[in-house]
Amino acid sequence: MEGKGLNVGEYVDLMALLLDLELRDEYRDGVIANFERIMAIAQVVNEFPLPETIEAASIFEP
Amino acid sequence: MSLEQADAVAIAAAVREGKVSAVEVTKAALQRIAARDNELNCFTTITADTASRDAERIDREIAQGKNPGCLAGVPFAVKNLFDIAGLTTLAGAKINAENPPATQDATAIARLKQAGAVLVGALNMDEYAYGFVTENFHYGTTHNPHDLKRIAGGSSGGSAAAIAANLVPLTLGSDTNGSIRVPGALCGVYGLKPTYGRLSRAGVALFSNSLDHIGPFARSVRDITTAFDVLQGEDERDPVCTKRLQSQMLDAMSRQSIENLRIAIAGDYFEKGASPEALEAVQNIADALGVTQYVTIPEAHRARAAAFVITACEGANLHLEKLRLRPQDFDPATRDRFLAGALIPSSWYIQAQRFRRWYRDKVREIFQKVDVILAPTTPISAPFIGQETMILDGEEILVRPHLGLFTQPLSFIGLPVLSVPIVRPNALPLGIQLIAAPYNEALILRVASVLEAKGVLCV
């Protein structure tokens, strides 16, 4: 993923600041661990090549 | 007639025929709940007073010669994320306990009441429906009636356990990534996740807008079909509720066979992570149906990953304000997941939604060749309460996320799925998913009714 060399802790702190989410010391590590997990899972989807014609549906219909 | 063992359809028939009163049925259910719920912890609220009044009204209507409905006098309960008029909707969260009471029932509750069913309470769940275990940080753990040391599954754990323990014959739950099917399987009861948008979610606290479904739990196919029939219908209160015409299924089911149905077993992804007992259960069902064909659902592992991203993102954004103001009042595990989800870049979310469209089209192609697909519901039977890991395919993996291994890729594109119970002698129950193309609930209900009639499910 493009995140090679990314400092996840820094990313989490900056994004939390942007979204006005306070990350207290007692749970900052838990949030970082969860974000690292999401990042690894998202990679499975992000690395999959999709045709440009595939749009994200604004209203999902099965 | 044993009120404890009877299914909803049998109870309603007995009530309508005057063999038993709705008041007697309700009283018996409340007594069973009082006797057993201390050890099970299915219920967060018991609505004894309103249930008694509703039962008295039904008995009066019968005395006046009126037809009180196809679920006359049937006690039911709902996951505590359905609005119940006059009660605060918890959604398993401590923060919500401070909210004002709901001013009207959720549409699903109103429709069941309209059919004569009697609401007896609200049921435990994972906080904000984020989990597969119902080990609720604030309201305690729901225990599996088959073994009290084990989980009931989640997030609709109270809904499944209440059925399995014969406390009530009918409950409602919600399913985002498997929250009806997982507890249904672990508790050995039927759980139906209908097509996305098929049943109204009005008055239901959402977890992930584009993935949430509601659906019923029951002990028989005719009960789950009856409930589905009652719950169907357009609803202006829910913007995603389909405008398709209802198709009542109970009458049609008894006249239809499954001889011409093309049924296949889900291979590859759906076999790799399953325990030998789960694979054996699928094979037994396949044998009973004479099924030998396999299909591959392409990129199912990526579908699960995309579902994870969408859930984390949508769930977090629903609770953003509470995460800003009161993070200390969440279950710490839920809070940390939500906070991480709030930080997901939009491009990841969009890619997951684009993948969803691609995947939906690929799965639609499969349903050109196959009518119903079989797959395990969970990789294993109910784990112990607090159990953190399990061994699958020789690898030690986390229990909590992987209970949804086989349910997530199917929720993701809104397919209708029925988890049928496999209740085994001297062993814990398992579930098998019967999966169909969108809006084809009738097919999976028909297959389930045949399996039930063959006695291979042994509920």
From TrEMBL, chain A:
<protein>
    <submittedName>
        <fullName>DUF4089 domain-containing protein</fullName>
    </submittedName>
</protein>
<dbReference type="InterPro" id="IPR025148">
    <property type="entry name" value="AtzG-like"/>
</dbReference>
<dbReference type="Pfam" id="PF13318">
    <property type="entry name" value="AtzG-like"/>
</dbReference>
Automatic annotation (TrEMBL), chain B:
<dbReference type="InterPro" id="IPR014087">
    <property type="entry name" value="Carboxybiuret_hydro_AtzE"/>
</dbReference>
<dbReference type="Pfam" id="PF01425">
    <property type="entry name" value="Amidase"/>
</dbReference>
<keyword id="KW-0378">Hydrolase</keyword>
<dbReference type="GO" id="GO:0016787">
    <property type="term" value="F:hydrolase activity"/>
</dbReference>
<protein>
    <submittedName>
        <fullName>AtzE family amidohydrolase</fullName>
    </submittedName>
</protein>
<dbReference type="InterPro" id="IPR000120">
    <property type="entry name" value="Amidase"/>
</dbReference>
<feature type="domain" description="Amidase">
    <location>
        <begin position="24"/>
        <end position="445"/>
    </location>
</feature>
<dbReference type="InterPro" id="IPR023631">
    <property type="entry name" value="Amidase_dom"/>
</dbReference>
<dbReference type="InterPro" id="IPR036928">
    <property type="entry name" value="AS_sf"/>
</dbReference>
